[in-house]
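Notebook, student rotation project (T.W.).
Task set for the rotation: take a protein with a known small-molecule partner, predict the structure of the complex, and write up what can be learned from the model alone. Partner molecule chosen: zinc ion. Sequence and SMILES entered below by T.W., checked by me.
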Amino acid sequence: MPKLAVSLCLQCGCHTLTQLPSILLCPRCGCPMKPLSIQAETFMKLSGTEQDFFLVQEILDSAPASVRQTLSVHGSSSHHEVIAILCHQVSLLKKENSRLEDTVSWMHQTIWTLIHRIHPSP
Ligand SMILES: [Zn+2]
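Predicted structure of the complex:
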């Protein structure tokens, strides 16, 4: 009988049960999925909340050190605190991205202005 494994997509959080050995792409986003160390039988015996907690821990364990440090600085341990912190981080990154896009746009316009000064159109 083929052995079942739990795989997790670290990009979108999707998880699946698959037969081993298999290299699996996420059915939701197409990214490679990470096989988890927990046995499928053990995972399926967990409640929905316990499965969710386990998957969140796997995602956090795989997160960049800067993200883990941010979460540990805030001493968060519950899912809603983690989600709130991550939403705040996303908001800050969107603001930073907007500022950087404005800078690139300004630089692009400045370069074209200088080029037109050097080589004026006839
Ligand atoms: Zn995915």
